Amino acid sequence: MRITFGTNRFDYPDPDRLIASARATEAAGFARFWFPDSQLRNGDVFINVLTALQHTERVTAGTLLVNPVTRHPSVIAASAAAVDLHAPGRMLLGIGAGDTAVWQIGQRPARLAQTEQAVRTMRALLAGEAVDMGWSAPSRLQQPRSVPVIVAGSGPKTLRMAGRSADGAVIRIGTDPELVQWGYDEFCAGARAVGRDPATLFVAGHFHTVIHDDPAVVSARGKVMAAGYYEVNPGTWQRLGIPWPCPPVHDILTEVRPDFHHAFDMDLAARHVAAIPDDVARRFCLMGTGAEVRRQIEALAARFPWMTHIILQPNMPGPGFIEACRREIIPWFATG
User: Do residues 39 and 47 make contact, with C-beta atoms less than 8 angstroms apart?
Assistant: First the structure.
């Protein structure tokens, strides 16, 4: 089965490192690049996307993810359209409620209704439609572009919303087959409820990924990634009947900053969540050597034929991760 791969966590905002990383990542066989919008950590996401597109030849690139709290939907749509003018047909717009980007400035993630309204507004503006946004006349984007709007999420309500309102979804729900199927079913239910065929929409599986030859490192980092799912959506753990074995998340996060998935000090985070069993961590994270991660992906791909695009989010980004994917993972899924 042919699968395309995407990844994020490039060497930004240093331009030279970003360009070199983007070129190496394209050469490794990745088809899509995804950039987070965390303004205090990563610079401006649209500049990063455009820089990557201008120094590569084939890949598409997009945001994973912008949010309607730190940016107005009209600003997001205008920025996406501007990038697509420079790289026609290669821009993707991923949106969600927001996490680190909003928490670090004392705000709260967007509610579902706010995110859905943003999705509808951006899709309309990008399609060249007029939108009533409270001005004396409906507002239009002066240079609309056909940029797909993709919703990223892990909760059933968000994934249903993606099915009914967006051009597709990035399902970020862990690696356990029950969770993956649950997320996809919710996405499909949302689409069918409004008469849409889920097969016509973009859908990707998103997986936090720890690739390393040292099993101790793999175990420690994988547990932190699993903890991140509990932090953001404890319903994923509860659905699998897994109890939280560590101190309260709120207490841990007084020391682990800004959150588990983006912790500044991963070793500190790992010590706080060492009680998580390895088998639990593997239900939320791809873990192991490159070959071991490939076998985990093969199992998921065999079970879920709709999963034709997979986003690998490296816990330890850099040349080693890209090389492992080039050598041990991507070639096995290039045909079919």
Answer: no
| Domain residue extents for the chain | 4-213+289-333, 215-285
Residue 317: HSE in the Cβ half-sphere, 13 Å Cα cutoff: 19
What pLDDT does 100 receive? 83
Taken in order 152, 153, 158, 164, is the CA torsion positive or negative? positive
Asked if residue 315 lies in contact with residue 208, where contact means CB atoms within 8 angstroms, the answer is yes
Q: How many helices (H) and strands (E) does the chain have?
A: 15, 9
- Between CA 36 and CA 43 the distance in angstroms is 10
Q: What is the mean pLDDT of each run of 10 residues along the chain (336 residues)?
A: 90 87 97 93 93 97 96 98 98 93 89 98 98 95 97 96 98 97 98 98 98 98 98 95 98 96 96 98 98 98 95 95 97 84
Question: What are the start-end ranges of the E strands in the chain?
Answer: 4-7, 32-35, 60-66, 91-95, 149-153, 168-171, 202-211, 286-288, 309-314
User: Helix axis angle, 177-193 relative to 156-165, nearest 10°?
Assistant: 40
What is the reported pTM?
A: 0.96
Amino acid at 159: L
| Whether domain 4-213+289-333 has CATH 3.20.20.30 | yes
User: How much is the CA Rg of the chain, to the nearest whole Å?
Assistant: 19
Q: Which residue do the tokens 């990634």 mark?
A: 225
The 10 Å Cβ neighbour count of residue 86 is: 12
Residue keyed to tokens 């919710």: 186
Residue 309 sits at φ, ψ, to 5 deg, of: -130, 130
Amino acid at 311: I
The answer to whether 276 touches 270, Cβ cutoff 8 Å, is no
Beta strands in 72-198 (DSSP E): 91-95, 149-153, 168-171
As beta bridge partners, residue 310 has: 5, 205
Give, in order, the Cα–Cα distances in Å from 202 to each of 32, 78, 245, 265: 13, 22, 36, 35
